[in-house]
Design brief:
698 residues; mainly alpha
């Protein structure tokens, strides 16, 4: 084995930690060892040095022929791990010099950095055909790893598809069959024009003939990815039955105990640590491979929200605690990313609170906070939880208790019953919540008024330097706008030691409006003082307009803000212009320039509020609706005021109302939660526009 390894000039090569890669032959021999601990240590060394954080070096390239030799040697163990290593070195796609470059200023040095990536990809992809001959290897773990590698690396996808399709009916190992099905789905997605129509029937045939529950789940996910029209009508029901069988297989009575997997020795390596971490996670949530496959199916279904919500509702009712934990997390992803057909998913999410499982309750409350704008149906449950857990908190860290999480979810729904509890918490010296102002805004100034005195006392008692709590309390008081707090907020506007407090105070005074007349001198001073930071001058200008209606001092600051290179300056300026309305007419020429260049929908909205010029604004709103989905709430609010002039937007409005996907769901992978309140506001405006035209036409 490794013929010629001594002839490689390893000393002239390098990796992440040395300019002399003389340790690399030892790592390669370690991968070939009979000792599993030594193999782990060697694999860790490959990832940690020779392929450090995805980088590729000349020593990495020199390893590639020997790594292929390892894979082709039947007596070597853990060959599947070597396959995965090669896949990582080659990269998901062929490397692009433009994307890899720019690390070094010197062009030659940069080119030298890029070259190993190109060489490694070429070498690995050029030898990928060797994997085809190993698909019937006796090593089942190797067979499971190879299909994905072929789908990723082989230059002839049609040839690979044909071989994998032929292998599926004769593969006897469950994991290897999963690998084949997943690779066929990947080929169909990546090469839709040539293979898309062929993969669906192959996968559907597997679904219809196999009895393996987990393989059926894998196939469902692949069908959802590449041939959704071939999904069975009862996809959700079928997936839930598979999960029930998986649960019973783990917990049901069986005459034969499953043979335990051989334990590997623990080593001080990342490889060993990650293996243990995955095992511990699965044990903690009572999960197995089926749970991963179910999440894969969920994500593959994408905008098939009807199926996904049916599936989610079934998961939330499962007797399997681990599946309910997974379902609670999926609630957050699904309810914030897609629009539910009814209140049932939210109700079933809240139902987890009565299970007397603290961990499950904590997870459910976190998600209920994210979906608060559409969770009013469960307000009574949350109010009961707040009462029941009232004696289970301490001032320090109370937000992290079940009581705190339930109170947050209730407040975010705008429920007045949260006010008395918040008064008690703040009076007892509880930590000032980070999002207190957001809670108060949801509840409303009038209903939250009892909070005013205690927030005032807390703010007045703060020691200098308590910047975080100062801003949080000012922001919350600004929402309520209690008259007794006006003098205190004016004083904070002049706090030279706390820039954030000055900023917050200016915004708070805006909400007071004409009731804050005594703040006018201090506001004028802040607006005209060129030494004051621009963002504070802009907020002071907004407050001055709200308090006095004086446009003369406001307009120059706003004009400067429009030309600001900082996002906040322009954003604040456009917001103020919206408040100015026709009084901002002097700024219309600059707004037209911004609207013409298409830099910001907010500029078009501001121009509409200043001039009412439909002809200039409407085309921008229509173009940006499609080009920049996150601009839709602002555009819809503007369109709602245009009356019949908004008629060209009706097709877009109706498409939005019919879409299952929330407008701000950009498909970002990962554990993302989208802003439900913003999307619900968009839907309300869209319904208003549609209703307006229905009334006009009726």
């Amino acid at each position: 084995m490794f013929t010629g390894i001594e002839e490689v000039d390893w000393a002239s090569m390098g990796h992440a930690y040395t300019d002399s890669a003389t340790d690399v032959p030892g790592l390669l021999w370690g991968l070939a060892s009979d000792d599993p601990a030594r193999r782990d240590i060697a694999l860790d060394g490959m990832y940690g040095a020779v392929h450090h954080q995805g980088d590729v070096y000349d020593s990495t390239v020199a390893c590639i022929p020997f790594l292929f030799e390892l894979i082709e040697t039947p007596t070597v163990a853990d060959r599947d791990a070597v396959v995965r290593l090669l896949r990582s070195i080659a990269g998901e796609k062929e490397p692009d010099p433009e994307e890899l470059g720019g690390i070094f200023e010197d062009e030659e040095e940069d080119a030298a950095w890029i070259q190993p990536f190109l060489d490694a990809s070429r070498l690995i992809r050029g030898r990928a055909d060797r994997f085809l001959g190993l698909l019937d290897d006796p090593d089942a773990e190797l067979r499971a790893a190879l299909p994905g590698a072929l789908a990723q690396l082989h230059a002839e996808p049609t040839k690979v598809f044909s071989v994998l399709r032929g292998r599926l009916p004769v593969e006897t190992d469950a994991e290897a069959a999963h690998g084949l099905a997943r690779a066929i789905g990947t080929l169909a997605v990546d090469h839709a024009e040539t293979l898309g129509s062929q993969a669906g029937p192959v996968l559907r045939d597997v679904l219809d003939r196999t009895a393996d529950p987990q393989l059926r789940m894998t196939v469902l996910a692949q069908l959802a990815r590449c041939a959704p029209d071939l999904l069975p009508d009862n996809t959700a029901e079928l997936a839930l039955e598979i999960m029930r069988l998986a649960y019973e297989a783990r917990h049901g009575e069986s005459e034969e105990e499953p043979e335990p997997a051989p334990e590997r020795p623990r080593t001080p390596t990342m490889v060993s640590y990650l293996r243990d971490l995955e095992a511990a996670h699965r044990k903690s949530v009572d999960a197995d491979r089926a749970d991963d496959l179910l999440e894969e199916l969920h994500r593959a279904l994408g905008d098939r929200a009807d199926v996904r919500f049916d599936l989610l509702n079934g998961q939330l009712c499962s007797q399997d605690w681990g599946q309910r934990v997974a379902a609670v997390r999926m609630c957050g992803l699904l309810l914030t990313g897609w629009r539910p057909p009814n209140d049932l998913p939210v109700a079933l999410l809240a139902r987890q609170l009565v299970e007397e499982e603290p961990d499950l309750s904590e997870r459910a409350l976190n998600e209920l906070s994210y979906v608060a704008p559409i969770a009013h149906v469960v307000a009574e449950i949350l109010a009961v939880c707040v009462r029941e857990w009232d004696d289970e908190w301490e001032p320090d860290g109370w937000e992290r208790t079940l009581y705190g999480r339930a109170l947050a979810a209730l407040a975010l729904q705008g429920d007045e019953r949260a006010v008395a509890a918040l008064v008690d918490v703040m009076a007892e010296g509880g930590d000032t919540p980070e999002y207190l102002a957001r809670w108060v805004k949801a509840i409303g100034a009038e209903a939250a008024a009892p909070l005013g005195p205690v927030l005032h006392r807390r703010l007045a008692a703060l020691a200098p330097g308590a910047h975080r709590d100062t801003s949080r309390l000012i922001d919350a008081l600004g929402v309520i706008a209690p008259a007794p707090s006006l003098e205190l907020l004016i004083a904070k506007l002049g706090d030279e030691q706390d820039r954030q407090a000055r900023w917050s105070a200016a915004q708070a005074l805006t909400r007071y409006g004409r009731a804050a007349g005594e703040a006018a001198p201090r506001l004028r001073e802040s607006v005209t003082d060129e030494a004051t930071p621009t963002e504070i001058r802009l907020d002071a200008a907004e407050a001055l307009w709200a308090v006095t209606g004086e446009a003369e001092l406001v307009l120059p600051v706003v004009r400067d803000g429009l030309d600001s290179t900082h996002w906040y300056g322009r954003s604040a300026a456009l917001r103020i212009i919206g408040a100015l309305g026709p009084a901002g007419a002097a700024l219309a020429p600059r707004l037209r320039e911004l609207t013409v260049t298409g830099t910001d929908v907010s500029a078009a909205v501001a121009l509409w509020k200043v001039t009412g010029d439909v002809e200039a604004v409407l085309p921008v709103l229509l173009d940006e609706w499609t080009a920049t989905p996150r601009s839709r709430p602002a555009a819809a609010a503007c369109l709602a005021g245009m009356g019949r002039a908004a008629a060209p937007a009706l097709p877009l409005i109706r498409a939005e109302l019919a879409s299952p996907r929330r407008h701000n769901n950009d498909g970002t992978a990962g554990n993302v939660r989208y802003d439900v309140a913003e999307d619900e506001a968009l839907l309300r405006d869209c319904r208003t526009i549609e209703a307006t035209f229905a009334a006009l036409d009726g």
